[in-house]
Amino acid sequence: MELKNVILEKEGNIAIVTINRPKALNALNSETLKELDTLVDTLENDQDIYSVIITGAGDKAFIAGADITEMKDLNTMEGRSFSILGNRVFRRIENLEKPVIAAINGFALGGGCELAMACDIRIATQKAKFGQPEVGLGITPGFGGTQRLARHVGIGISKEIIFTSRMVKADEALRIGLVNKVVEVEKLMEEAKLMANTIAANAPIAVKLSKVAINRGMQCDIDTALMYEAETFGQCFSTEDQKEGMAAFVERRDKSFKNK
């Protein structure tokens, strides 16, 4: 599939995915979602990619939302299908074995906020603004906003944000736990790449299994979650990277992981 609205770049062991519709404030239409879906296949299959950054083109928006021009004339079945498409793609990003960092500048509204929440870590600039404004348009959030926002910030705050459709500035987003870090605009990609490379320097299989254990554990009771942890912990001892990491520690030398 030819990519028209999404750009993929690689720098060493990190991948940088840019939503590239700046004239539409990077709004998500069906075509862009399908391109993202195709791109996830590439990210999954490239064993040289250890971490991923998702960002938006231009300085006004990460993603301003789903494309209202496309949505406004949908019927019930078409609306449901559009929601299912977005949810499926975002769920694939959430379940991607490689950690995903959202680098957010400007508006992250509706589908943009929902995509950011599907990522593992969120770094925002001081200009970033978040929100789920859908009820002001006569719809509900459709790409996971009613579910992930509550999981990130709690039920009460998520209901307030969704019911009022107000925008949340970067400093509040940091305070309520919606983002991990707020940086100056000019340092956004520098900070995102620093974190991505820091992650990539660790044992990739161990990072992958840690993500699996966290994601699975959040959906079940603590005893079941601890069993998932024990399973992933045990799996690590079948890897070359575990042998290398512990040998390097004991021998007081630099480690060299091979993703094996």
UniProtKB/TrEMBL annotation:
Q: Has keyword Lyase? A: yes
PANTHER family, sorted: ENOYL-COA HYDRATASE, MITOCHONDRIAL, ENOYL-COA HYDRATASE-RELATED
Enzyme Commission (EC) number: 4.2.1.150
Subunit structure comment from the entry: Homotetramer.
Which is a GO BP term held by this UniProt record?
fatty acid beta-oxidation
The UniProt similarity line reads: Belongs to the enoyl-CoA hydratase/isomerase family.
| Highest classification ranks of the organism | Bacteria, Bacillati, Bacillota, Clostridia, Eubacteriales
Domain of life, per UniProt, equals Bacteria
Q: Which InterPro entries match?
A: ClpP/crotonase-like_dom_sf, Enoyl-CoA_hyd/isom_CS, Enoyl-CoA_hydra/iso, Enoyl-CoA_hydra_C
Tell me what organism the protein belongs to.
Clostridium putrefaciens
- Supply the name of the protein: short-chain-enoyl-CoA hydratase
Keywords, comma-separated and alphabetical:
Isomerase, Lyase
What reactions does this protein catalyze? Answer: a short-chain (3S)-3-hydroxyacyl-CoA = a short-chain (2E)-enoyl-CoA + H2O
Q: Does the keyword Nucleotidyltransferase apply?
A: no
